[in-house]
């Protein structure tokens, strides 16, 4: 029996300039173009997350922002 993989969100961009700066990032994360992330070193992103064009994630300098799995941010 074949196991079906979960269908992922389709990306329209390549906004991954923050991937190496994030505190933690799960599998199957899409960050579209023109996403702005403040204090990426304090942001955890779970698996199967979509962050749409022109979104803003505003972390804080002395806290942790956590985005859970299976989340869509438009």
Give the oligomeric state of the chains in this entry, treating copies of one chain as homo and distinct chains as hetero.
single chain
Q: Low-confidence parts, pLDDT < 50 over ≥5 residues?
A: none
H-E order: EEEEEEEE
Number of domains: 1
Instruction: Give the strand content.
Output: 25-35%
Counting helices, strands and paired strands, the structural category is mainly beta
Task: Estimate percent helicity.
Answer: under 10%
Query: What is the averaged pLDDT score?
Result: 83
Strand order of the largest sheet: 1-4-7
Report the principal-axis shape.
Answer: globular
Please render the helix and strand layout as text:
Blueprint: E1 24-25, E2 29-31, E3 36-38, E4 43-45, E5 49-51, E6 56-58, E7 65-67, E8 72-73
Parallel strand pairs: 1-4, 2-5, 3-6, 4-7, 5-8
Task: Compose a concise summary of this entry.
The protein has 74 residues and is mostly beta strands. Helices cover 0% and strands 30% of the residues. It is globular and about 25 Å long.
Description:
With 74 residues, the chain is mostly beta strands. It has one domain. It is built from no helices and 8 strands. A 3-stranded parallel sheet has the order 1-4-7, with no helix packed on it. The chain has a 3-stranded parallel sheet with strand order 2-5-8, with no helix packed on it. The chain is globular, with a radius of gyration of 13 Å. The chain starts with 23 loop residues before the first strand and ends with a strand. The model has no long low-confidence stretch (mean pLDDT 83).
């Amino acid at each position: 029996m074949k196991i079906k993989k979960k269908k992922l969100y389709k990306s329209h961009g390549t906004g991954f300039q923050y991937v190496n700066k994030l505190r933690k990032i799960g599998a199957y994360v899409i960050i579209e173009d023109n996403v702005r992330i403040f204090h990426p070193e304090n942001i955890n992103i779970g698996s199967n997350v979509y962050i749409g064009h022109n979104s803003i994630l505003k972390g804080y300098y002395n806290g942790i922002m956590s985005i859970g799995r299976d989340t869509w941010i438009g």
